[in-house]
Amino acid sequence: MNTKNSKYISQVSEYAFIAYFFILTFFPYGADVIKVMCLMTMVGCLAYQMVLEKRIIFEKTALNIPILVFFIYLIIASIFSKNTKYCFETLLHDYVPYFIIFFCMVNTIHSIEQVKRIIKAMLIICGLVCGYGLYGYYTGIAVRDDRLIATFKYHSRIAKYISLFLPIAICLFFYYRSIFVRFWLGCLVFVSGYAIVLTMSRASWFANMVAVIYIAFMLKKKYLLIAIIVLCPLLLVLLPSKYSMHAKTITQYDKFFSSNKILGERLMCWKASIAIILDHPLLGIGPGKRNFRDIYETYRKEIREKEKKSLGDTPAKTVKKKKSVKPKKAQKVEGLSHAHNIILHMWVETGIFGLAIFLWMFTIIFYRTIKTIKSIAENRFEKMLLVGVSAGLVSLISHGLTDIFWKTPESLFLWQVIGVLFLIIQLEGNRKRKDILSSYSGNS
């Protein structure tokens, strides 16, 4: 094959990934035509490369089989769903882009220099959207319920977005020795961290703390653990009372199931999800947020009725108090479209088999990542990047305790990051094979 053409195709694909990431960040709910054009460019680059090489190009990764099995299973679950048409629309509009991003990335990007450029672009774009978020928060043009939202509709979504990339910035800060680079990475960490504080997302605060602990153990940096121990109490003192009081609720375990301020509607959501699972254990209700939204209110009402009956001997005061908060809760659940827990969500939508395949995929992701990290020598860019990217995934999964990340646009960012992760693993594997071959030929 013409090396020049191959390089050109790879560069076009690289630019398409960066453009897609930029558009998705600043227009997460719009610019659909441009997004589709970017995806078509990625697919076109892969197809053109196959034509030039006159062969099927499909790199072997540990995720190929799980993704294929998962997609086939989703088709089966959709066929047996009550809303088959909508389920297939979800597969087309949501799941197909996930897998296009992953497979095009691992098959069209060929060098670590390209990975560096993609990561650099991602971090710059993350910094820009955080900067815009701060501007929008203080000018009032991008605020919802007194929380930072930037270009996203909800504070939780921008918080999950930042949580994916903040750990990468932290790890690269430790890798680079240049004062200039460290200064800008330090600025990015500060701006991103400040933006997360202003989202007032307790799940994100907890998730990022878990991610930093993960980084400390993986890189053997004890002072990061000390920094957490010192900074957390310090921030509680220095931050305005509304932030410190909000943060303190994370540790109020005794009030988790009795206070609406901590779990809110989530507790009812979990109860309803378990009831749905008991009625649809094998194949679930089918993929798609509309399926959950339609069925949730029915189960919620049934559970409320059962709870009312069980409160037959409750004093009138308590019953009256419960009635007074009903209107508020009804407003909160108007657009509820997920189970507020990633395990429950996957089980509700795809059944026990879908959940098992989902867990299989993420087990493979972390197994291959940690295995590759251990095999790479200290102070190499690839190792630091793998730790940073996997820490971002740890943070995102931690969000999954009280929220989900398996929906657009969060899942699109997730699959771009997973693509980068397996690209590094693949490039590292290729490098080792070359070293073995060169040493073997040298000995012979």
Write out key terms for the chains shown:
two-stranded antiparallel ribbon, mainly alpha, 2 domains, 444 residues
Report what the structure shows.
The chain contains 17 helices and two strands. It is mainly alpha-helical. It has two domains: 330 residues, no CATH class; 79 residues, no CATH class. It has a two-stranded antiparallel sheet. Strand 1 and strand 2 form a beta hairpin. Helix 6 packs antiparallel against helix 16 and helix 15 runs antiparallel to helix 16. About 4% of the residues have low confidence.
Quick summary:
The chain is mainly α and about 450 residues long.
Per-chain topology:
Layout: H1 3-26, H2 32-53, H3 64-79, H4 84-108, H5 112-139, E1 143-144, E2 147-148, H6 155-175, H7 179-199, H8 202-219, H9 222-238, H10 241-248, H11 266-279, H12 289-310, H13 316-324, H14 326-332, H15 342-375, H16 381-399, H17 410-443
Antiparallel strand pairs: 1-2
Unreliable runs: 316-334
Structural class: mainly alpha
Task: Please indicate the percent range of residues in DSSP E strands (runs of 2 or more).
Answer: under 5%
Q: Radius of gyration, Cα only, in angstroms?
A: 23 Å
Q: Tally the helices.
A: 17
Q: Helix and strand succession?
A: HHHHHEEHHHHHHHHHHHH
How many domains comprise the coordinates? 2
Summarize the main sheet. 2 strands, antiparallel
Distance from N terminus to C terminus (CA atoms, Å) equals: 29 Å
Shape: globular
Averaged pLDDT: 86
Total beta strands:
2
